[in-house]
Amino acid sequence: DGVAMIIAIDLIEAYATLNTNPAPTVADYTAAGVTGVVAGNLAAVNAAVDALVAVDVDTAGEIQAIVDGVVIAAIDIIEAYATLNTNPAPTVENYATAGVTGVVAGNLAAINAAVDALVAVDVDTAGEIQAVVDGVAMIIAIDLIEAYATLNTNPAPTVADYTAAGVTGVVADNLAAINAAVDALVAVDVDTAGEIQTVVDGVVAIDLIEAYATNNTNPAPALADYTAAGVTGVVADNLAAINAAIDDLLAVDVDTAVEIQAIVDGLIAAIDLIEAYATLNTNPAPTVADYAAAGVTGVVAGNLAAVNAAIDALLAVDVDTAGEIQAVVDGVLAIIAIDLIEAYATLNTNPAPTVADYTAAGVTGVVAGNLVAVNAAVDALVAVDVDTVGEIQAVVDAI
After folding, report:
1. 351-387 b/e with 16+ CB inside 10 Å = b?
2. Taking the mean position of all CA atoms in its chain, how far away is CA 194?
3. What phi and psi values does residue 201 have, to the nearest 5 degrees?
4. Cα–chain-centroid distance for residue 159?
5. Which residues, including other chains, have CB under 8 Å from residue 1's CB and lie 6 or more apart?
6. What's the mean pLDDT in 357-373?
7. Apex CA 377: angle with CA 376 and CA 383, to 5°?
8. Mean of the per-residue pLDDT values of the chain
9. Cα–Cα distances in Å, from 196 out to 172, 183, 250, 288, 336?
C-alpha cells in the first residue's frame, strides 16, 4: 500500500507539473490515501491540481486539502442558495462536485426548490445535501407510480423508480406483476412509500406461495407471507394444513390472493363442520371430502363411520385444528390396523397385515424384507398376544 500511495502521489504531481501527463483517476486519489473524490467531482479536482505545481501536491495531506477545498466550494454554493435564492442556483455540476449523486437536468429544478426551502445549516455537508436529493427523488418516483395507477398509458415504473421511492423487493423478475398490481389500484392507494411497499410485499408473498405449489422444496410459506398476500384466517394451528393444501395444487391455482383465500376458507369451513359434528351429532356428518378439505389424510369410505364415531365422542375444542383431527383419524386407523393384526393371529385365512397396516398401528421396523417373517410370528400367536401396539412391537423387535 505504501508503494501504491507513492506511485499515485507521483502521478498526481506529474499532472500538476504538466497536464499532458495522464490525468489522475478516482482510483489514483484513493490509492494516494485521499478521500472525497468521486466520478462527479473528478474533473473539478483535476482542474484544481492542474492549477498548481508539483510541490503543492507532493503529500497526501496537501492533495486532501485541495479536494476538500473543491468539495467545500461546491457545498458553499448550495448553502448560499439555501440562504438566499437570489444567489446563483446550484448546477448539476455543483452537486456532482460536492460528491452528491442523483442530480440530473430533469430533477435539478425540484432539488433546488427543496434546497431553497431550507437554511444553510441544513445543507452544509455532502450527506445532508444527499438526503435532500434522495428525498426529492423519492417524491418524483412516488409521483410516477401514482401516475401509472391513475392511467397505465403513463410511463410504467422501473425497478430503479421503486428503489428511489424507498421500496424494496422489486426486481426484474417481478416488475411486471408489481406494475399490474399498481395498475389495478388508484393513485390514493399508492401515494406513500408504505402503501407501495404493501403492494410489493403482497406480490412477493404470492410468488413465494406459487413457488411452493410448484415445488415443495422451495421455502414453505409462513404466517407473514399469507398476511402480506392479503389472505386472512391463517394461524399457527392451521398453517401446516394450509401449506399441505397448497402443495397439492399447481402455481396457476394459487396465483391470486382470491384463489389462496378460497383454499384457506375451504379448510376453515371444513374444520368448522367437523367441530359442529363433535358438538352435536344431529349436525351434518363430515364426509370424506370434508376431511380432505380440512387437510386431514387417511379418511376413506371404508373407515369414515369409525372416524365420525370417534369425532362424535369428543368435544369441539378437541377437534378445532387440522392437527387435532388428524390425531383422531390416526388413532382410528391404528385401532383398525391392530384389529386386522389380531384377526390374522386368530386365523391366518384372514387378510395378512401389510407394511402399511403395521405402520398405521404405530409399529416401527416392518419393511418389505421382513414382512413374511413378522406375519409368521403373529400367526404363531393368538389375538390376546397382539392386541396392543406394545405387544406387536415386541413381536417385530424379536424378529
Report:
1. ebbeeebbbbbbbeebeeeebeebbebbeebebebbe
2. 16
3. -60, -35
4. 16
5. none
6. 96
7. 105
8. 96
9. 17, 12, 28, 43, 55
Residue 280: its pLDDT value, please? Answer: 97
CA atoms within 13 A on the CB side of 218: 16
CA 46 centroid distance within chain: 45
Going by C-alpha positions, the residue among 216, 217, 210 that lies closest to residue 263 is 210
- Give the whole-angstrom CA distance, residue 336 versus residue 267: 26
Cβ pair 363, 396 in contact under 8 A: yes
Distance CA 81, CA 76 (A): 9
Judge contact between 372 and 399, C-beta under 8 A. no
Mean pLDDT of 228-243: 93
Rounded Cα–Cα distance for residues 3 and 9 (Å): 10
For the chain, give the number of residues. Answer: 399
Q: How many CB atoms lie within 10 A of CB 124?
A: 16
For residue 1, is pLDDT > 90?
no
**Three cell numbers written together for 14:** 506529474
Helix residue ranges per DSSP H, the chain:
2-17, 26-31, 42-50, 60-83, 92-97, 108-116, 126-150, 159-164, 175-183, 193-214, 223-228, 236-247, 257-279, 288-293, 304-312, 322-346, 355-360, 371-379, 389-397
- Report whether 185 contacts 196 (CB < 8 A): no
Give CA–CA dist 341/378, Å, rounded.
8
Decide: 117 and 135 in contact? Cβ < 8 Å: no
